Amino acid sequence: MPNRTPYIAANWKMNKTVAEAAEFVDTLLPRIAATQSDVVICPPFTALAEVVERSRGSAVRVAAQNMHEEGFGAFTGEVSAPMLVELDVEAVVLGHSERRQLFGETDEALSRKVPAALAAGLEPILCVGESETARDAGETEEVLERQLQADLANVESLELERVVVAYEPIWAIGTGRTATPEQAQEVSAFIRDVLRMRGAVVDNVRILYGGSVKPGNAAELMALPDVDGALVGGASLNPGDFAAIVDAAG
Length: 250
Ligand code: PEP
Prior knowledge:
The chain is an alpha/beta fold. The chain has ten helices and eight strands.
C-alpha cells in the first residue's frame, strides 16, 4: 500500500492583506501543531514574505498562486520563480482554472511554467479539471488527459513525482457543489493512470481534490485511495475551518 503524506493547501486567491495574513497564521499554527501532513498556504504575492516569516519552524510551507516561466525580463506585472525562491517560497500553484478562464493561461504556457518551477526548486501544484459542459458531454477524461499531456510535456518522467496534481472540476469551484466521492476517486485514479503511462513513479505522486472542500466533507474525500489531500479555496480563509480540514486528513 503506497504511503503518501497527506497534502492540504489553502488557496487564498485575491484575499487577505499582510495584517490579515499574519493574524491567520498566528491563529492557525497552534491548532495544527500536531499534524503529520504537509500544510501549504498560498497567499497573494504581497503577503508571501509575511507568511514565510511567521510560519518558520512549523509544518506550514508557502506557495505562490502563479509565476512567469522566464527568470527575468520585460514582462510587466509578472513574478519569476527565482524571485519566489529568494523569499523561501517552496511551491507554486499553476494552471488554476481562474487563471485559465479569466487570464487566458494556456496549456502551452504551462508546458513552460511547470519545468521552470521544477528547475528553480519549486514544487508545482498543477491544477486540472473539466467544465460542466465537458462532464455532461462525457468528455471528462479526454479533457484531463489533454491538459496533463500538454502541461507536463517538457517534464522528464523521473521528475513527475515532484509535481502535485490538483483535480479541480470547474463546476465545483466556489459553487458549494462538491464532486461525489465516486467522481473524485474515478478521476484521481485516471490521473494516476495517465501519469503512469508518462513513466512517473505514481505511488509517490500526490493527487489532491479541490472544489468546495469544507470541514464537513473533507474526511470522506481525503480517505479515497487515490486522493492524497485537498486544495481548499473559500474554506481556507477561516483558520478554524482550515485547521478542521487539516485534522480531517488524519
Ligand atoms: C480553488 O479555488 O482552488 C477552490 C477549490 O475553491 P473552493 O474551495 O472555494 O471551491
